[in-house]
Write a structure and sequence with these properties.
This protein is α+β, with helices and mostly antiparallel strands and 321 residues long. Helix content is 48%, strand content 16%. The N and C termini lie far apart (152 Å). Residues 1-53, 65-94 are annotated as: Disordered.
């Protein structure tokens, strides 16, 4: 600091020369500065043109960006073709028209998605419609009510809230209907029912079945209707049961439980008396119990004896008809 101050206080002393501009070098530099306002570039030195290089660099960057954009656009199209998806908004962020097309494509798919959501609902509505399962020439009919309307439930025989109700009606009551229903209830033990049946056939047969599972009830209803239809073609038939259930025993108006029971259906009262008279005169040792009803003959006792006697009576009844 002291030396700097001393130099300032010596105005008459010549300043130190820069070693780069000493002697002839200094003279050449002063002369060139006096002749030209700007220093000239030596002939052997190549001065680069920075403006032209920058302009070429910008143009090459634009070309590369255009190539990259076209390649990315082509790859996006191939990806969209393979996956059938809508192009992303990033690929078209610089193009307002492309943005509108992208929005239109997205909005165009929304109704299709809504229709797919509503399709199962229409299908369920078809499945929930009530159906007429079938009907025969003699007037027997079967219906399936899927999710019946709430205000219509009071028209059924039992006030049970069920997803499905099956109904079978017939203008006549036959004992064979009880045997077939007994078999069905054994196959579907959880199924609830209501039955109107008259052994003298003064009333029509009305059977209502209740089940939460619609498909299960539909299956059971078709099975029972088919069995009843097949047996209705024959005028005289025999039905047998080994160890009948208490329900069947009660419906047949039997006071005690029996080993076997059989019904000869389709014969009237005096025809039944005729067949029994001939049987008892020939086979007095047969330990057989019977009941003569208006439209059928009821046999009960040991199952083997009941089976043998009922089949013999059937053959004789067919000869008389």
């Amino acid at each position: 600091m002291k030396s700097i101050v001393q130099e300032v206080l010596k105005p008459n002393q010549k300043p130190k020369e820069n070693p780069l501009f000493s002697g002839e070098t200094r003279f050449a530099y002063s002369k060139s500065m006096a002749g030209n306002n700007y220093p000239q570039t030596p002939p052997n030195i190549d001065r680069p043109n920075y403006q032209q290089k920058n302009r070429q660099k910008n143009l090459s960057f634009i070309k590369e960006e255009t190539v990259e954009h076209s390649e990315s656009k082509r790859s996006n199209k191939e990806f969209a073709a393979k996956n059938e998806s809508v192009p992303s908004e990033k690929d078209y962020s610089k193009d307002p028209l492309a943005m509108l097309q992208t929005l239109s494509l997205v909005q165009g798919k929304q109704p299709t998605h809504q229709q797919r959501n509503h399709a199962p609902i229409r299908k369920n509505n078809v499945q929930e419609e009530s159906q007429l399962i079938g009907q025969t020439r003699d007037g027997m009919k079967a219906w399936l009510y899927s999710n019946p309307y709430s205000c219509l439930l009071e028209n059924f025989q039992r006030s049970i809230k069920s997803n499905a109700i099956g109904v079978i009606t017939s203008p006549t009551c036959q004992p064979g209907q009880l045997f077939l229903l007994n078999e069905l209830l054994r196959e579907y033990p959880t199924m609830k029912y209501f039955l109107t049946w008259d052994k003298e056939s003064k009333q029509c047969l009305v059977l209502e079945l209740y089940e939460e599972n619609v498909e299960l009830l539909k299956q059971a209803l078709k099975i029972l209707f088919k069995r009843l239809s097949q047996h209705s073609y024959k005028q005289i038939q025999v039905y047998q049961a080994h160890s009948p259930s208490p329900w069947l025993t009660k419906q047949l108006d039997l006071k005690t439980q029996v080993d076997g029971v059989a019904v000869l259906e389709g014969i009237e009262k005096y025809s039944a008396i005729f067949l029994l008279d001939r049987l008892l005169k020939k086979s007095q040792d047969k330990n057989i119990h019977y009941k003569i009803e208006k439209n059928y003959l009821l046999l009960h006792g040991y199952y083997e004896i009941v089976k043998e006697v009922s089949e013999e009576l059937l053959k004789q009844a067919e000869r008389l008809s």
